[in-house]
Specification:
The chain is α/β, with parallel strands linked by helices. It folds into two domains: about 210 residues, 3-Layer(aba) Sandwich (Rossmann fold), CATH 3.40.50.720; about 35 residues, no CATH class. Helix content is about 45%, strand content about 15%. The chain contains eight helices and seven strands. Helix 4 links the parallel strand 4 and strand 5. The chain starts with 7 loop residues before the first strand and ends in a 7-residue tail after the last strand. The structure holds nicotinamide-adenine-dinucleotide (NAD). The site of nicotinamide-adenine-dinucleotide (NAD) has 28 residues, from helix 1, helix 4 and helix 6. Pfam families: adh_short_C2. This is Oxidoreductase. InterPro entries: NAD(P)-bd_dom_sf, Sc_DH/Rdtase_CS, SDR_fam. Keywords: Oxidoreductase. One of its GO terms (molecular function) is oxidoreductase activity.
Length: about 260
């Protein structure tokens, strides 16, 4: 894909799930990647495997808490020291505190700190380095959950709706610097954590979840997504193939929100 080779990309939440698939795709396309995640064990192994995919030292793990501004500042500085600059950012890290009106103040603060402020802090500290390059691209990971109501999901869905509109505001503020900002809104993604949830809580494997009218059946294509299918959309929006796209919320949901 045009405009990814040789680029340096920060992927928050890159140790697992969708972020991990984005890391692998970026290095496969010839980019360098910083995995900014709070899970040290998975982050280090993700970096090792990304180096193997690339066949060169392409990945750096930096232990990061995106809700802590000093941690984000230090992570962006380490990125620039290590790779000589920064071109692109993927805001993937999130916590899944699914609560309704019963949510405590502490639960509200935690999910807003990570899912909303965490994305804003990463853009705040990445943008000056992109501005120094004269161009940049940011992809925020939002969700179908930011556009619909789901039972008992008040806290999470509020944060994802915030990401959808922060994306438009950031795009407007950063356009004069040649920095594009877009969001990818995935449907249900079959990652390891979702696999465990469906097995332990619902007694379902993937085939059963895909066949269930309330899970796979909520998507027009009748199935959940592989993380790599989300990573493809992220790679497109990062790349020069999307050079005339900014402020966009791309639904990557097999038609879930079109029904
Ligand atoms: N899985 C889905 O079905 C789905 C659907 C729509 C949107 N999303 C969104 O996609 C993104 C990735 O989700 P996933 O399912 O791959 O999740 P995941 O749990 O597999 O990965 C999330 C990663 O974020 C990291 N993280 C959490 N808090 C952090 C913090 N404070 N600082 C740094 N890292 C932190 C975790 O360690 C983990 O590696 C999230 O933004 C999520 O809201 C997921």
């Amino acid at each position: 894909m045009r405009g990814l080779a040789g680029k340096t990309v920060i992927v928050t939440g890159g140790a697992q799930g969708i972020g991990r698939a984005v890391v692998d795709r970026v290095v496969h396309e010839g980019g360098n990647v910083v995995i900014a995640d709070c899970h040290a064990e998975f982050g280090k192994s993700a970096a090792q495997e990304a180096d193997e995919i690339a066949g060169r030292p392409a990945a750096l793990f930096v232990h990061t808490d995106v809700s802590d501004e000093e941690s984000v500042r230090s992570m962006t500085e380490k990125t620039v020291e290590h790779f000589g600059g920064l071109d692109q950012l993927v805001n993937c890290a999130a916590v899944f505190i699914m609560r309704g009106l019963e949510a405590t103040v502490e639960e509200w603060r935690r999910i807003m700190d990570v899912n909303i402020m965490g994305q804003a802090l990463c853009v705040k500290h990445a943008a000056p380095h992109m501005r120094a390059r004269g161009a940049g691209s940011v992809v925020n990971i939002a969700s179908i959950s930011g556009h619909i109501a789901q039972p008992g999901y008040l806290t999470y869905n509020a944060t994802k709706a915030a990401v959808a509109n922060m994306t438009r505001c950031m795009a407007m503020d950063l356009a004069p610097d040649g920095i594009r900002v877009n969001a990818v809104n995935p449907g249900t993604v079959w990652n390891k954590n979702n696999e465990r949830f469906h097995r332990e809580q619902l007694g379902m494997d993937r085939a059963e979840a895909d066949a269930d009218p309330e899970i796979g059946g909520r998507h027009m294509l009748g199935r959940t997504a592989d993380p790599e299918e989300i990573a493809s959309a992220v790679a497109f929006l990062l790349s020069d193939e999307a050079s005339y796209i900014t402020g966009e919320n791309l639904m990557v949901d097999a038609g879930y929100t079109a029904m």
